[in-house]
Amino acid sequence: xxxxxxxxxxxxxxxxxxxxxxxxxxxxxxxxxxxxxxxxxxxxxxxxxxxxxxxxxxxxxxxxxxxxxxxxxxxxxxxxxxxxxxxxxxxxxxxxxxxxxxxxxxxxxxxxxxxxxxxxxxxxxxxxxxxxxxxxxxxxxxxxxxxxxxxxxxxxxxxxxxxxxxxxxxxxxxxxxxxxxxxxxxxxxxxxxxxxxxxxxxxxxxxxxxxxxxxxxxxxxxxxxxxxxxxxxxxxxxxxxxxxxxxxxxxxxxxxxxxxxxxxxxxxxxxxxxxxxxxxxxxxxxxxxxxxxxxxxxxxxxxxxxxxxxxxxxxxxxxxxxxxxxxxxxxxxxxxxxxxxxxxxxxxxxxxxxxxxxxxxxxxxxxxxxxxxxxxxxxxxxxxxxxxxxxxxxxxxxxxxxxxxxxxxxxxxxxxxxxxxxxxxxxxxxxxxxxxxxxxxxxxxxxxxxxxxxxxxxxxxxxxxxxxxxxxxxxxxxxxxxxxxxxxxxxxxxxxxxxxxxxxxxxxxxxxxxxxxxxxxxxxxxxxxxxxxxxxxxxxxxxxxxxxxxxxxxxxxxxxxxxxxxxxxxxxxxxxxxxxxxxxxxxxxxxxxxxxxxxxxxxxxxxxxx
Length: 610
Known about the structure:
Rossmann fold; 5-stranded parallel β-sheet; alpha/beta
């Protein structure tokens, strides 16, 4: 294994919005190898912490109480060792197959190496099969690695791909203070803030600036004042360029010196002063100011600088509005908002996030007031009992319940009563009521608006699904496929489902056989033609958010109110007492109806005797 820097641990890694997800995923990979996020693919521009995180995983694994076999190396070393092993006849399994964690850096060098990609693919398959963890790092996302094998791209996409962004102002200040603490240095008030406001590109550049300040303090036995920062940066230019061998880095230091020097000048040109004040105001509010900082680079006033400042302020105001609305709605994806809401250059992403959250939290239509199950006097007793069991049982045996009648309005009457009974029993749980055409239209709308992902989460997290017009699925090829995936998602969650049609599943021609078999795997009941009550759906309207805000189910099984932005434990369904859905016991099975249970569910027989 490559020699590890002892200073690169999770404890020394400063976490901010731009790297929080990467840090959390890396910790999970180190603590529980192979159980999630496998493979974990990290990417960023140079100097933003990829190597630090890989080394931290290795240190964390080595410090574990369990014996963990871990290897950390650059891609070139990995390939050299693998080639040597193959030439010796050992095979790649003997080299990496027994590892618990494999950490590979500089994966972007797979470009133009089809044999190397083939070897990495085999290693990934072996480690995954044995429960090993793979963490890879690159300076670009997998999709941007030229000539990457489609199979590798698929493997990477099947895990978790995370980017590490440049640290924002607060994180830069925290990094400066952390490095000063590690070096036993004390900075004068304002020095860390002045350096953090510079247009940095990565943490390595920040480290070079701090080295100059720390060296000055050590050699001259004094503290560097904020008024000296600009001059020190100018003196650093030449030495930094020589030591790094990079004209780009020397140019960066020139920019840094100019920016910090402006902060301490007594007299400024009006355009510089206006830009600086706008930058400082945005910095205090936690926003990225790279857009305005770029305008300070030139020696003279840039064209349109006043309009640029006004546009910047408008973008900040819009980010404020988006943040407030996300809070009101109860954003179910807080990680997605990290970094986006602090960067006006990512306003388009923030707008897209808001659109998705609006879709995710959009309430379903609900049924109009009317009869509940206990009000259906004289209704088909078998169907009524099955519907009551679907609503009231802790674990419904008849799920899904498929009810059909030549007069579909009759079966829709039962569906409406189920919806009202469930709503009264479980007001805090999520119920979706509608028709197949409504489902298909809703799906087409979501596709057109680019919010299909949020649309799926909205439907896939309901607790009770009530759909009528099932026979019309044959007219919606794409929506039929979506309906199948919805069925499977709800089945895995244990949600309750009831479907209504004008014919049994066996008589719906051209329907997806997967759906037909799943309908028939529940309880299929025919209801005789009789009196029907129209099923009326009304659009649900979200109320103004307050402490008693509309309940919004989320993926974790919790709930959110926008005002408080806090989770509440979702109420678990409790069996509804039989009395709650019974009226006088009239619908209990009489001697003319018998339900016989065999040990196997598929052998359930419903027999009506004359």
